[in-house]
Amino acid sequence: MWRLYQFPLCPFSRKVRLLLSEKGVGYELWRENPWDASDEFWALNPAGRTPVLHDPEKKTTLCDSRAICEYFEETVDQSPMINGTVKERAEIRRLVALFDENFFTDVTGPLLQERMKKRIVLRQPPDSRRLREAMKMAHGHLDYIDYLIDTRPWLAGSRMSLADLTAAAQISVADYLGGIDWSGHEQSKGWYSVFKSRPSFRPLLSERMEVITPPAHYSQVDG
Amino acid sequence: MWRLYQFPLCPFSRKVRLLLSEKGVGYELWRENPWDASDEFWALNPAGRTPVLHDPEKKTTLCDSRAICEYFEETVDQSPMINGTVKERAEIRRLVALFDENFFTDVTGPLLQERMKKRIVLRQPPDSRRLREAMKMAHGHLDYIDYLIDTRPWLAGSRMSLADLTAAAQISVADYLGGIDWSGHEQSKGWYSVFKSRPSFRPLLSERMEVITPPAHYSQVDG
Ligand SMILES: N[C@@H](CCC(=O)N[C@@H](CS)C(=O)NCC(=O)O)C(=O)O
Ligand SMILES: N[C@@H](CCC(=O)N[C@@H](CS)C(=O)NCC(=O)O)C(=O)O
Q: Does domain A2-75 have CATH number 3.10.310.10?
């Protein structure tokens, strides 16, 4: 059985969980905090990052969320998530990078630092200037999602794809940490609430990470 | 004809150039500095990053170096670079992420900031503490390459792959900026010098970026 090394607020692990669930691949959760990683974990992933997917019986280890998603896209036919023409596939991968890198650097990363790491690891107060900056950047990214959803039912085109899973994974962590103000983003909100009601998403929304509590709307499907 | 938006020291653009050259795909270079990007460039890539590959006639735009490489892997049979079993392909992609993300964050990114951006954009002196830290991190990454090359002819296994192109692209920029001390890294040095003599690599090594000059060994094949 696959074992997923992760922690509840890791957006890259959430993307992998959404993909595995959409594709009907079973796995068990294995808690690992990268800031406090075990030697066993470093041996599995020399980059020291979550997610890692490991099958002890098959002696298979997969690292990096994009490499993991490509692996399951190549091995499991159900619910293709990097699908279509070569141009469409390039568009999916462009958006995956945009959310994994730009959205993470601008929004999710700073929120995790200020509201998770400072609270439960560093025991410092958050930097309110950095939080305001991250929330401002979130508006810019939601504007871009509004724009995409104005012309396409899903982020990368006519079908749900890894771009949607990636964006939803990042946004869900930012939303948990109180970083998303949905007002003025009707298209993004509509797209995200369809997502929130999917069976793949429900387990993520019901999890909590230690003392950190999300805002009331976080796990409400119509929130 | 493909037009590659890039600047000479962008490691992600170098990876794409190596791949296109190995695959025999023609393109023209188009200079773009992301810190000073034109509106035309932002319209092509809402992430505002190089590399972007654009074909004005075909009206095709590809963004993000990994998405670009996957596109050419899917469309051009010559010199497969993400090849082998699904496990081997996952290993290639793991290493691509390791060099694009960890090596870049630890080494190439800080060197570009201190030795390129501060020199030609910000007109500030480099922070010598950050430079020392980046060079120390480079040693750690070269240790890992030494370890891989001890057991495999190429980074991801028995064949040259996108992992090698990615690592070589990052290392070449770090080396240009004086951040690589090769002493004590015989395996890495051997692997890299084989690479440096490839026809795909030669044009990169002869280019210079403005007033920034590389160390003498940088473009010597036996250096
Ligand atoms: N490219 C990686 C990024 C993973 C990543 O950055 N994970 C974070 C947790 S959300 C981590 O482990 N950070 C610890 C570190 O970078 O040292 C992926 O897509 O899997
Ligand atoms: N994931 C991207 C990263 C590209 C990237 O970070 N490019 C740098 C230049 S080396 C850039 O454009 N930085 C400007 C910015 O991030 O605003 C890729 O692989 O293409």
A: no
Q: Any idea where the domains of chain B sit in the sequence? A: 2-75, 86-206
pLDDT tens, position by position, B163-216: 999 999 999 999 999 999 999 999 999 999 998 999 999 999 999 998 999 999
Strand B52-55, strand B60-63: pairing: antiparallel
Provide the ipTM: 0.97
Is residue B180 within 8 A of residue B113, CB to CB? The reply is no
Q: What is the pLDDT of residues A144-157, one digit of tens each?
A: 999 999 999 999 99
Q: Strand A2-6 relative to strand A27-31: parallel, antiparallel, unpaired?
A: parallel
On the question of a common fold for B2-75 and B86-206, the answer reads: no
Contact A60 B87 (CB under 8 A): yes
Q: What is the pTM of this model?
A: 0.97
- Tell me which architecture the domain covering A86-206 has in CATH: Up-down Bundle (1.20)
| Ligand 1 pocket residue status of A54, Cβ below 6 Å | no
B64 lines ligand 2 (CB under 6 A): yes
Optimal mutation site among B19, B65, B68, B86, interface A, most CBs of chain A within 10 A = B86
Q: What is the dihedral of CA B185, B186, B191, B193, to 10 degrees?
A: 100
